[in-house]
What does this fold into?
Amino acid sequence: MFSEAHFGSSVPQYLLFFAIVGLGAVIGRSLSYLYRRRLKERAAATQTRIDDILLESVGRPAVLLGVIGGVALGREVLTPVEPLRSALNASIRIPVIVALAWIAVRLTDGFIETYAAAYADRTESKLDDELVPIVGRITNVAIVTTAAIVVLDSVGYDVTAVIASLGIGGVAVAFASRKTMADVFGGAHILATKPFVVGDTVDIDGTAGTIEEVGLRTTRLRDFDGRVVTLPNAAIAGTEITNLTSEPTRRVKTFIGLPYATTPTEMAAALDLAESTAAGVEGVDPERTGAWFWDYGDASLRIRLEYHIETLDRWKAVRDRVNRDVQAAFDDAGVEMTAPIGQVRLGGES
It folds into this structure.
């Protein structure tokens, strides 16, 4: 009975084969134990994280690798016939591919979690925090898909049709999600170039406000009226962006109208008064303040008053103070300011 052949090998040969496979599993388990108890502690003592990632990636698959090694060695003691020979060969190739894909996935996750995620945590933008797990998932899907194709090829399937169907499916998915992908790549462009970060005051193609969130597909800002405006990242990447926060000061220009009856002497006095009043407001840069007789308007002689606000967090209050002080100074000096054409005066006068 023991000498009788089954699929080309005797019972003692099978017993020796399973003994070698079991020994391989024990060796793999021992290597895993050695990793946890010895090598991991030494790797943790080093300054670099690369050795920790490598050991963590190989730790659990070590048992599977031991079994694969046992099957590869044990096969040599057998004299199998078909289809057992093909099954044994497949039992080595497929687990090897699975183990390598397993290690690759764990390596990818380890490097992304250690370096990419750590970098994303240090930045103010939320976009990179959302991109990191997506990049990890895409990479893992690519690894698993490649491993599955290799497995199918190793067992004799024609993978050409599989690859072709994947290509057609990929084109269809890409076509259906082209707008979404455009926004995602636009977000990646914002992340790479960093034209603004959360908290910056910006003007994006005429839409001005403070950035509240940079997402995977959209960027959200709050305009000066308090409304939340959501803009697609693809549109932002292709338009002009003015980062007001990056400016050392905020320039303000305003126009004051005087009657056509104003004399040259009165105009010169009004220019000096407007400039000195604005320059004297706290938060205004006096060295960059000026007033000019700008042009002849439809109903008035126009003065252009220009100044720079240094305290950006209070720019509204400073601008309000300048307007109030200029109005009061002109009123005290008896300088009359004109109203624009069509403006209705209070009190029944037009």
Observations:
- The two ends are 121 Å apart (CA to CA).
- Residues 204 and 241 are 5 Å apart (CA to CA).
- The first helix runs from residue 11 to 45.
